[in-house]
Structure formats: C-alpha cells, structure tokens
C-alpha cells in the first residue's frame, strides 16, 4: 500500500524492467502511478491505482513497452489513464472508470503509436470513454467503452490507422463512436449503441 497525497504513490523515472503486483496505489490528490521517460518494460498487474484530482491521473505513462494487466485504474476528478507519446504499451484485462467532467476521457492515448487495449472496461458517465488524440496504429479489441454527458464512447481525433474490433461502444447523448480528421481508421465486428436517436451511432467528420 502506498499513498501519494499531493505526490504520486508510485513514481518511475528512467527505471525499467520493474514488476509491481498486488499493490494499492492511492494518489489522493496526486497521481496513483506515474511512469516517466525511459521507464520501459515495466509490468503492473493485479493492482489498484487511484486519484481524486483534476489534472492528475490514476495512471500516467510516458514511456514505452509497459504492460498493465488485471488492474483497476480510477480517477474521480479527471482522466483515469493517460498514455502519452511513447510506443508499444499494452493494457489488458483491466477496468478504467473516471468521473471527470468536460473533456476528461477515462482512457486517453495522446500522440502515441502501437498501443494495445484488450479485454478492458472503460467508462465515464460524464465524458468520453476512450479517446485517441493524434494516436496511430492503436489496436482496441474485446473491450467496452462507455461515454456520457453528451460525449462519445470512443473518439478518434486527428490520428490514423487505428482499429477497434469485437468491442461494445455506448454513449449517452451523442454518437457511440466519432472520428474527427482521423485517417484510415476502422471500427468493425463491434456493437455501437447511442441512447439518443437523434445521433448516428457512428459519426465521421471528415476523414
């Protein structure tokens, strides 16, 4: 058990090939876990990472080739999990809920390549479930992404070559999935549901 208060409960900086398992990382008003530059090939499994603050995260990753599995990642005030710029991260068999409002995706992948999200449950009843912001070659499979508050379950924004398959996408008050200037991306073999019939379940503009 680690408590961060205003800091991160777990902070890795240029620290690679670590294994964290069966841990409770409570950031409080800080980050639950923060994996910074050159902290590669780490594994976090069977763990809980939480935050309650805006501009903080349950888990933040800016490093490559890390694996997160069988974990619970939560933020009641903002994005629960953010992957930023670095390639090859894997999140699997995990639950990622957020309660942040405004633009606060539960899971946000920003300018990163070759991320893999599989068998995950991602939700925010007040914002976007899963957002890809200028991300490329992301693979999402066998997952559920739920958004609400007039946002989307899945949002492709400004990236390319992303694929979602065998997943359930749901939105309250908007399209289940939306692509905006996102090129050569796909959603297939998936179920898309919106609770508002005035919206298409899948919306692309343009790209």
Describe the 3D structure.
The structure is a single chain. The chain is mainly β and 207 residues long. The protein has strands at residues 2-3, 10-12, 19-21, 24-26, 33-35, 43-45, 48-51, 59-61, 67-69, 72-75, 81-84, 90-92, 95-97, 107-110, 116-118, 121-124, 130-133, 139-141, 144-147, 154-157, 163-165, 168-171, 177-180, 186-188, 191-194, 202-205. The model has no long low-confidence stretch (mean pLDDT 96). The radius of gyration is 16 Å and the shape is globular. The strands form four sheets. Strands 2-5-8-11-14-17-20-23-26 form a nine-stranded parallel β-sheet, with no helix packed on it. The protein is 0% helix and 43% strand. It has no helices and 26 strands.
